Amino acid sequence: MYLDVYGDTLCALVSATALASAGNQVFLHVPEGTIGKQLARGECPYREPGLADMMAEQSQEGRLVLSAMDVPPAQQSKVIWLALSPDAIYLAHSIVSSLPSNKAHQWLVVNQSTFPVGSSEELQQALATHEAEGSTGSAVVSLPDLLTEGDALQGFMRAGSWLLGADVEWARLLVAELLRPFNRRKDSIQHMRPREAEFTKLAITGMLATRLSYMNDMANLADSLDVDIERVRFGMGADKRIGEAYLYPGCGFGGLSFSRDVMSLASTLQVSGMQAQLLDEVLHINERQKEALFRKLWRHYGTSLRGRRVAIWGAAFKPESSRIDNSPVLKLLEALWAQGVEVHVHDPRALRALADWAGEREDLVLHTDPYEAVVGADALMLVTEWKTYWSPDLLRLKMNMSSPLLLDGRNVWDPAFIKQSGFEYYGIGRR
């Protein structure tokens, strides 16, 4: 099948590559900019496991072809796949309005972009207006982006479920056929109306964010009650009504898409005339939680931090990512700098992004070796739970650090073992 995929998002690249791997002929239309230039050089702009190799393979096979945004769809194509950034809805309307109109040709527009609720219906109306004379019965469906950065390619190739919003039966069948190669074990498509699919995507994100913020609140309360939040988490997760997912307290969540989706849901509620008190509080708790490690450090040193050196392990908003969008490290750095702290940071992938964000500063030193970052440090803060940090050389840490103080923002270390090894330890609600 011939498909034209539009966008330079991670979702666009993953979708185009995965669809090409199933034998489809895919034309990837990319806007001008940095990502487009990288793709033209044969580079993969996202550090996503498996994506670069599969993109190269599909390009060599000729099934994945790079194209410009203003190049019209292939003559044999009948599927337009939109995976644009959330602020590019104007571009979606432009693409739909420029589709060739032919009485014998039905277009299927798959909207995978995270636009406001009702956007797919607006695109359907725009497409119908554009085709008024031909009236071919083309359709727009919503297939929300549920991919998780760091597991995006596998999330598409082995999707547990899809949300498909479609009002036309032939469109449902065609999307099901496109997705069939990626999960033959069961029918993983949840069928609904377009606006229901769009709203479900936002509602899922809101629920996950709410669970995270709730657990962070519980962890902070556990600190004051001399309770270990880890045992509480196990007890909560054992209740089948609750389950184990997203019950891990930490130093706040980040990520451009995750945070933006929560804010989009809150905005949708407000526009509808409803109070977004719960989501507003979720976001407030999350921003406050990003300074949790700073507050523990501040209390430990009796509010005297000026002139101290602090090491941070992890800057990316999540493991397996090179991005720092809304990452807890950003607010943490600002708090430390305000107190006159010199900060040394290590991250496997996100140092370049952090350097671009911070600029040249004497109080920020970036390291490619995690143990070099801790030399002479008065404390080590773990912010992103990269696997390489889970089993550190504690003897080397103790020898290199000025003071053996560990602040675990992701509760990945065992408090008893760390303390037995001669360190002072602070976690999030841990004892």
UniProtKB/TrEMBL annotation:
Statement: the UniProt record of this protein carries the keyword NAD: yes
NCBIfam families named in the record: NDP-sugDHase (TIGR03026)
Lineage: Bacteria, Pseudomonadati, Pseudomonadota, Gammaproteobacteria, Pseudomonadales
Name recorded for this polypeptide: UDP-glucose 6-dehydrogenase
GO biological process: polysaccharide biosynthetic process; UDP-glucuronate biosynthetic process
Enzyme class, spelled out: oxidoreductase
Boundaries of every UDP-glucose/GDP-mannose dehydrogenase C-terminal domain copy: 311-415
Keyword RNA-binding: no
Taxonomic superkingdom: Bacteria
Record GO terms (molecular function): NAD binding; UDP-glucose 6-dehydrogenase activity
InterPro entries: 6-PGluconate_DH-like_C_sf, NAD(P)-bd_dom_sf, UDP-Glc/GDP-Man, UDP-Glc/GDP-Man_DH_C, UDP-Glc/GDP-Man_DH_C_sf, UDP-Glc/GDP-Man_DH_dimer, UDP-Glc/GDP-Man_DH_N, UDPglc_DH_bac
Residues noted as binding substrate in the record, renumbered to the chain: 201, 246-250, 254, 318
Alphabetical keyword list: NAD, Oxidoreductase
Protein family membership: Belongs to the UDP-glucose/GDP-mannose dehydrogenase family.
Pathway stated in the Swiss-Prot or TrEMBL entry: Nucleotide-sugar biosynthesis; UDP-alpha-D-glucuronate biosynthesis; UDP-alpha-D-glucuronate from UDP-alpha-D-glucose: step 1/1
Binding site for NAD(+): 114, 149
Catalytic activity: UDP-alpha-D-glucose + 2 NAD(+) + H2O = UDP-alpha-D-glucuronate + 2 NADH + 3 H(+)
E.C. numbers: 1.1.1.22
